[in-house]
Write the structure tokens for this entry.
Amino acid sequence: MLDLIIMRSVHVLAIVIWIGGVCMVTTVLLPTVRHHFPACERVKIFHKIESRFATQARFVTLLAGISGFYMVWKMDIWNRFQHIEFWWMHAMFFIWLVFTTMLFILEPFVLDKKIENESQQNPDKVYTRLQCLHWVLLVISLITIIGAVMGSHGYTLF
Ligand code: HEM
């Protein structure tokens, strides 16, 4: 029982740091860099600042995944993934998968080079795309958090 309480606390703490950081990057860092720097410098400057958060994000994403799967295993609730009323369980796994793929595979091995090349040709378009992507991920994450808190305390939309 105590292990579940500890894992739930770790899970929530990891989510706070992770999605809180995504919120800061999306609503503060990206627009500030857009307003204060010319298009050709934006991606580079954003990347320099964001790379410190990316390291934190990798660590907390890992913690969120470990604690999340531990709870699923310990409570033996794998069957929730078969029922639509537990859409927030699917949403949590989906968000985690998207960020894990981006932070551990796409960003270091594919995206960094691609963005650098593309931003030499059309920096404004690349930066706008970066902002849109962050907004989409942030909104889906926030909806998931609301659904997960309500769902794990017995409320569901269906
Ligand atoms: C591999 C990915 C994940 C797994 C396996 C997972 C699993 C779980 C489990 C089993 C619970 C407890 C459910 C219950 O008590 O009925 C939970 C709670 C929660 N999760 Fe996740 N989760 C994952 C990722 C995420 C992500 C990405 C977010 C945020 C975007 C998130 C946010 C939450 C929140 C807010 C709670 C509710 C905590 C509470 O109110 O007690 N989880 N998760």
Summary: The chain has four helices and no strands. The chain has a mean pLDDT of 94. Residues 2-152 form one domain.
